[in-house]
Structures are given as C-alpha cells and as structure tokens.
C-alpha cells in the first residue's frame, strides 16, 4: 500500500513538473511577443489580400466569349475576373475559401492586438495562438490549391508526391500545438473552479 502511494505521488510530481515547466503559460509571453505577432499577422493579411486582387493565372483583360473552354459554358468571361475561376471553378472556390479564412483570422489577431484588450487574460492567451495557427495553416492550403491550378497536368502527380511527408508532418505539428494550447485552457479552467470551491468552503465556514 505504501509503495503504491509513493509511486502515485512520484507520478503526480512528475506531471506537475511537466505542467509547470512546459505546458503552463510562462509569464506574460503575449505582451513580450506582441510586436512579432502583429508583424506576422500583417504579413499574412497583406499576402492574402494580394492573392485576391491578383489571383493565380491572372484576370481576363477584356470580355470574351472564346478565350477559354469554359467561356462558352458560362456565356462570357468578364474582364477583371479570374481566369482560373472558369477553368477550375471547384479548386478556385477552395483557394478563395482558405485565402479568405487566413485573411479574416489574421485581421482578427491584429484587431485584438491594437484594441488594447487585456492580453494577460488566459482566454486571450489561448485565443491568439489558435487564431494564428488557423491563419498560417489556411495560408498553407491557399498555396497548395494555387499550385494545383497552375501546375501543368503532365508533372502534377510527380510534383505533389514530393511534399506529402511534409504535409503529414505539418498536420501532426498543428495537432500537437492545438492540443497543448487546449490543455492549457482546460487546466486553467479546472484550477479556477477548484479555487472558487475552496473559497466558498472557507467563506461558509467563517459564516
């Protein structure tokens, strides 16, 4: 019995040390990295905005009925609209969806940083990294679908077979980072609930 208790206490101390050293938020790191976060979010917002007004493949320079195989399908290809939106409509929609997601999340991070919200709040310390992860990951998917649309078909499979291991590694990395931040928030909520319960018990005993 005593041996089992010692083992359990040892495991508990190990997890507590792991939590305090690696998983717990260390100081006011968001305030310390505010400038870096703002710079990265600004760069992402600029890149995704530019991808919208200058899409891959360019835009039609004038109205045409015969400029491409899908111009006859849609009746006309309007000047100023994306060329690849007619050639690859489904892929272009995905490209725009991920591009817009990255743009909006990066703007959200910028808005939070310039609005003087209390960044010491644990919810904010969880929200900002998650938002940046979504923005960066969406930008990566934007890059992938842009390549899908402009890549010549005869080398498409050869080119996209190369980065497959890196895509898997990226997915695992994002999953680990998201899990760590979620665990931090869960443990913080749990600690707050326990503190409130103890405070209520003390208050009730005093009364």
From TrEMBL:
It is found in: Membrane. The chain crosses the membrane at residues 95-114, 126-155, 167-187. It comes from Pisum sativum. Residues 28-149 form the PGG domain. The keyword Transmembrane helix applies. This is PGG domain-containing protein. Keywords: ANK repeat, Membrane, Repeat, Transmembrane, Transmembrane helix. Signal peptide: none annotated. It is a multi-pass membrane protein. GO terms for cellular component: plasma membrane. It holds the Pfam family PGG. The keyword ATP-binding does not apply.
